[in-house]
Amino acid sequence: MATAISSAGPEDPGRLRRAELAEFLRSRRERLTPQQAGVIYTGRRRTPGLRREEVAQLGGMSTTWYTWLEQGRDIKVSDQVLDSLSRTLQLDHDERSHLFALAGAPDPTTTTECDAVTPQMRAVLAKLDPYPACVQGGKYDLLAYNTALRLLLTDLDDVPRDQRNCVWLTFTHPAWRESIVNWEATAARMVANLRVAMADHVGDPLWRNLVSRLRAVSPEFGALWDRHTVAQVEDSGVRTIRNAIVGELHFQVSNTWLAPRSGHRLQVFAPADSETERRLASLVSRAPHLRPAP
User: Fold this and answer.
1) What's the pLDDT tens digit per position in 123-135?
2) What residue numbers bound the domain in which 39 lies?
């Protein structure tokens, strides 16, 4: 059963974080088979995956203690316990980071979030034209963009300001969705990225409201969210966009973090071939006056 994230009324962030941790642990326990964990068993099993007592035994802790974690009890979890659970549940790098974040474990790399979109940064975006570029927030809000990015998937200036969010547009905007080649894989990766980022913001009403709104309007988002798949945003990757004006465009996309763990990143779409570069120049020439996002 999925944890309900509601935007109605203030709630204790600590309780919300513990509930998310409990569900994440449960989903990973049920995913791991006895054979994968090296557990010898006989007869039929009613529980999918491992039992709680098996996780506790493999992790070197009491069954009661582990049960409390899956119940969302307000208990202090040491780094050693988290490390043991990570190994027992065979978590990958992204899942391990997600586990520590949900547990509220101290992270020395955490810094105060900065104001990412300075006048100087907006000037950088403008100078990058005709290469599409933008500054995104941690939950995929489009904080600023240049002309090429504005026209890449749809005309962003025609999108209401409160809907200029890449996850929202991916699941709710037909033209945006149509422009994304290999939409299914892109959408799944984006939701996994959002899951990771959400671990540091489970008590934030703005983040909870985004998830609630998406679940309400998109069953596809809800199904992906309930998988509890997690993945960090990649530093670089290959993307293909089907632009309605100039056709198919191929990019090498890079993400540059503007401050450690701030969530703010400069994203640049560099053309992967000369034809894409030519088509981008044509696209930008149709909108000679820059209208940056307010």
Assistant:
1) 999 999 999 999 9
2) 13-102
